[in-house]
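Methods — Computational structure assignment.
A single polypeptide chain was analysed. Its primary sequence is given first, followed by the predicted tertiary structure written as structure tokens.
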Amino acid sequence: MIEIDVELALLDFPQDDFAELTEKLPASYIVEDKYKLGWGAVIRQLKTSPSVIDDAICVFLKDLEQMKKLIRRYNGIIRIAVYHDTVTFTCRLSSIELLEKFSLEVEISAYPSEE
């Protein structure tokens, strides 16, 4: 079984504006303070991601469309963690155009699942 976790790190987002970002997000998202770790403001979705990377990216960014200009300003990286029992996976990203609209880089990491 494959499990996918998606988050959006806004590396250059001002820490002083953290509360304002929290207020602008749709209800199904949260913001975590990851400044001390070097990731800035990290946006996470409360609902479970689909088990296909491309679908997970599209679902994650769909409700953030109205915040696209804000996201583009702050050096964003979509961080994807893939948990799989063999730690081997193949992915095809057809969502590159969507990522370009948000000016996002992609980081994909694989980890062994705990099952």
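Note: DSSP finds four helices and five strands in the chain.
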